From TrEMBL:
It holds the Pfam family Amidohydro_2. Residues 75-314 form the Amidohydrolase-related domain. InterPro entries: Amidohydro-rel (IPR006680), Metal_Hydrolase (IPR032466). Transmembrane segments: none annotated. This is Amidohydrolase-related domain-containing protein.
């Protein structure tokens, strides 16, 4: 097999990596191969190069990746006056994700995003939905989860039949997780995907201090996230990032049961910024390992790493 660095040196990555050497082409054609969909990745993540991101995904064994864009750079309360621009990680925007995915269509696809309280936010998101975006997100802004701007986005998702991926972080992004059930009930045809610190902290019924974003120790069944997943058929969980990995590994007995109970509601994402794709620095690889180790059955593992994403996202 031709090495990635040798290919990059030739300057012909656009034609080769988008076709015969894409992860999906190489791995799905192998006998007994097991495809993995990564619903949560970013381009230019903390300055990572495109070549590093491609190599990272290949090393993890990802066969299809969804690139989630940032909204436009603006100086407003919803972006914490610029702090949250680039999703606070220097992530590329709609145009970057669209153009990259179109160059590498077998291995990558893309989402659509915008700062929700901009007057033309819906029009900007719709532009990319019409170009083929398969998801809206990552919605990571300092706004109420039930604000007028967010509800316009939910309505757009309903019209285009795409899911919405939301970053939940107490007093920082998507405020008032405790009343999000009202949106789940108001928009039952929209599949929402929850992610990030507040989402994972609230798997635990005993989570009382919402300011603790990475709680440790034993988990008691019945936390708000746990109940939302049980009670609302249109809510799913994104396993990605350090928050996901921490949530899955803090109480592995709980996680085995959590996987069993919510086996149809959890989807794999990496949201991983490293340039390697393996080892302790790579959350994405750690999450894959945790899914394989803690899934009660092989069928549940395959649901979490592949089948559930295929079910709710047009990939």
């Amino acid at each position: 097999m031709i090495g990635l660095q040798a290919i990059l040196a030739t300057g012909i990555t656009g034609s080769l990596l988008g076709k015969s050497l894409s992860p999906s082409h190489r791995r799905d054609d192998l006998p007994g191969s097991e495809p993995i969909i990564d619903i949560h990745q970013h381009i230019h993540y903390h300055g990572r190069t495109d070549e590093q991101m491609i190599s990272h995904q290949q090393t993890m064994g990802i066969t299809k990746s969804i690139l989630l864009p940032a909204g436009r750079d603006v100086n407003s309360a919803s972006t914490h006056f610029g702090v949250s621009n680039g999703l606070q990680v220097k992530a590329g925007g709609n145009k970057d994700c669209y153009e990259f995915a179109k160059k590498h269509p077998e291995a990558f696809t893309f989402g659509a995003c915008e700062v929700p309280d901009l007057p033309d936010a819906v029009q900007e998101i719709e532009k990319y939905l019409k170009l083929g975006a398969v998801i809206i997100g990552e919605l990571k802004f300092g706004v109420d989860c039930d604000s007028a701007g967010m509800q316009k986005i939910y309505q757009l998702a309903q019209h285009y039949e795409v899911p919405v991926l939301m970053h939940w972080q107490y007093k920082m992004y998507n405020y008032h997780f405790e009343r999000f059930y009202k949106m789940l009930e108001k928009y039952p045809r929209v599949n929402f995907i929850g992610h990030a610190q507040t989402w994972w902290a609230n798997i635990d019924k005993n989570e009382t201090d919402q300011s603790v974003l990475y709680p440790k120790g034993a988990v008691t069944m019945g936390g708000l996230t746990d109940r939302y997943l049980s009670d609302y058929p249109n809510l799913y969980g994104d396993l990605s990032a350090g928050s996901g990995l921490s949530g899955l590994t803090r109480d592995e007995d709980f996680t085995r049961d959590f996987f069993k109970r919510h086996q149809d509601k959890l989807v794999y994402g990496s949201d991983c910024a490293d340039a390697v794709g393996q080892g302790k620095a790579c959350d994405g690889a750690g999450i894959i390992a945790a899914v394989k180790r803690l899934s009660p059955t092989k069928e549940i593992e395959r649901k979490l790493l592949y089948k559930n994403a295929k079910k709710i996202i047009r990939i």
